């Protein structure tokens, strides 16, 4: 009897001891995970040159960073995703901050201000199976809008650089800052519309070069003098018929095309490589340039996107996004408001 009791007592002690040990190791693992997250935040700060004004700001940024990292890692678990995410330069920004400073497209809700209603690629049926305007020398290196909501200026300029090269043979990097400072029909770092930017360029009789009027990442005063030194011009612009990826294909087969897109969703923001297949909506808040298209080895069709978030985002600044999706608006609404300049 005594032996039995003793044994039982021993058993209970053992169980308690083991469970204490278990909980301790759990807590320890969590503390370690948390510590390594702190280390990772420090490393990330060093990598992207981030400095916070005080400890409170750092704590706030750490919590955002941690949340984003956890979401990214959950997504990247092995299991046949078509694309991967990375803990990139946006990892310490909240969704609202990101949208306010890294995008900047303003849709005119239905009223697309066309100078004319022509769509010159209307009757084009013969298009190559793939296209990459970079290979034809019609695309300047990736630029970075930084913390200024002027994606609209970057895509208008990219499309204009494209048509200029196709018409003249010269690839000239043109000025976004001129649009940010001088185009009063748009709102500089507070957002703008691509078609209105094209209209401004037509009325201004051209744009100057990037080197003459370099990018400042802030709203500035228009330099009339520099704005008068035109390096390239366009004669107008045309809208691709809305929500029709077939029509969009004929346009992109012929020149780089500007598109509005829903670009502030979590997976879009942290896209790293592969073919982006969503999730995203059709709330057009960003603008990018379609500089080609193709089909991958698995048979998934894609558009080649030039973004303005620097080269550390995506595939060296570019994205491949799924083409010919079931929704007529295109993935992330990219087929809703495409347009291109004419020269
Ligand atoms: C990858 O893309 C294909 C083609 O759209 C789709 O059928 C598949 O579900 C995607 N895979 C994942 C994991 O989303
Ligand atoms: C397309 O074809 C139609 C019918 O032949 C013609 O009326 C129209 O002008 C053409 N459009 C363009 C942009 O060439």
TrEMBL record:
<keyword id="KW-0788">Thiol protease</keyword>
<feature type="domain" description="Peptidase C1A papain C-terminal">
    <location>
        <begin position="127"/>
        <end position="342"/>
    </location>
</feature>
<feature type="domain" description="Cathepsin propeptide inhibitor">
    <location>
        <begin position="41"/>
        <end position="98"/>
    </location>
</feature>
<dbReference type="Pfam" id="PF00112">
    <property type="entry name" value="Peptidase_C1"/>
</dbReference>
<keyword id="KW-0378">Hydrolase</keyword>
<dbReference type="InterPro" id="IPR038765">
    <property type="entry name" value="Papain-like_cys_pep_sf"/>
</dbReference>
<feature type="signal peptide">
    <location>
        <begin position="1"/>
        <end position="29"/>
    </location>
</feature>
<dbReference type="InterPro" id="IPR039417">
    <property type="entry name" value="Peptidase_C1A_papain-like"/>
</dbReference>
<dbReference type="Pfam" id="PF08246">
    <property type="entry name" value="Inhibitor_I29"/>
</dbReference>
<dbReference type="InterPro" id="IPR000169">
    <property type="entry name" value="Pept_cys_AS"/>
</dbReference>
<keyword id="KW-1015">Disulfide bond</keyword>
<dbReference type="GO" id="GO:0006508">
    <property type="term" value="P:proteolysis"/>
</dbReference>
<dbReference type="GO" id="GO:0008234">
    <property type="term" value="F:cysteine-type peptidase activity"/>
</dbReference>
<dbReference type="InterPro" id="IPR025661">
    <property type="entry name" value="Pept_asp_AS"/>
</dbReference>
<comment type="similarity">
    <text>Belongs to the peptidase C1 family.</text>
</comment>
<dbReference type="InterPro" id="IPR025660">
    <property type="entry name" value="Pept_his_AS"/>
</dbReference>
<dbReference type="InterPro" id="IPR013201">
    <property type="entry name" value="Prot_inhib_I29"/>
</dbReference>
<dbReference type="InterPro" id="IPR000668">
    <property type="entry name" value="Peptidase_C1A_C"/>
</dbReference>
<dbReference type="InterPro" id="IPR013128">
    <property type="entry name" value="Peptidase_C1A"/>
</dbReference>
<protein>
    <submittedName>
        <fullName>Uncharacterized protein</fullName>
    </submittedName>
</protein>
<keyword id="KW-0645">Protease</keyword>
<keyword id="KW-0732">Signal</keyword>
């Amino acid at each position: 009897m005594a032996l039995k009791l003793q044994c039982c007592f021993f058993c209970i002690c053992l169980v308690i001891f083991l469970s204490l040990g278990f909980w301790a190791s759990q807590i320890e693992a969590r503390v370690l995970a948390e510590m390594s997250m702190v280390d990772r935040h420090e490393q990330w700060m060093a990598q992207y040159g981030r400095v916070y004004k005080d400890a409170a700001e750092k704590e706030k940024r750490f919590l955002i960073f941690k949340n984003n990292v956890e979401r990214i890692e959950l997504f990247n678990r092995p299991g046949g995703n078509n694309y991967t995410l990375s803990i990139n330069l946006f990892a310490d920004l909240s969704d609202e901050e990101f949208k306010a400073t890294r995008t900047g497209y303003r849709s005119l809700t239905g009223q697309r201000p066309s100078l004319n209603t022509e769509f010159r690629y209307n009757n084009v049926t013969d298009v190559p199976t793939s296209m990459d305007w970079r290979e034809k020398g019609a695309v300047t290196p990736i630029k970075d809008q930084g913390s200024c909501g002027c994606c609209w200026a970057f895509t208008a300029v990219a499309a204009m650089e494209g048509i200029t090269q196709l018409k003249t043979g010269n690839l000239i990097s043109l000025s976004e800052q001129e649009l940010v400072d001088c185009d009063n029909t748009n709102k500089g770092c507070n957002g703008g519309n691509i078609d209105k930017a094209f209209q401004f360029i037509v009325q201004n009789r051209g744009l100057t070069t990037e080197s003459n009027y370099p990018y400042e990442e802030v709203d500035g005063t228009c330099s009339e003098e520099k704005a008068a030194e035109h390096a390239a011009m366009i004669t107008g612009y045309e809208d691709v018929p809305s929500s029709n990826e077939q029509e969009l294909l004929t346009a992109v087969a012929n020149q780089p095309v500007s598109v509005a897109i829903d670009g502030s969703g979590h997976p879009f923001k942290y896209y790293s490589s592969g073919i982006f297949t969503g999730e995203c909506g059709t709330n057009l808040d960003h603008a990018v340039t379609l500089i080609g298209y193709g089909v991958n080895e698995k048979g998934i069709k894609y558009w080649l996107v030039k973004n303005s978030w620097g080269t550390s985002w995506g595939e060296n600044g570019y994205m491949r996004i799924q083409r010919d999706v079931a929704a007529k608006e295109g993935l992330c609404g990219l087929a809703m408001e495409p347009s291109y300049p004419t020269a």
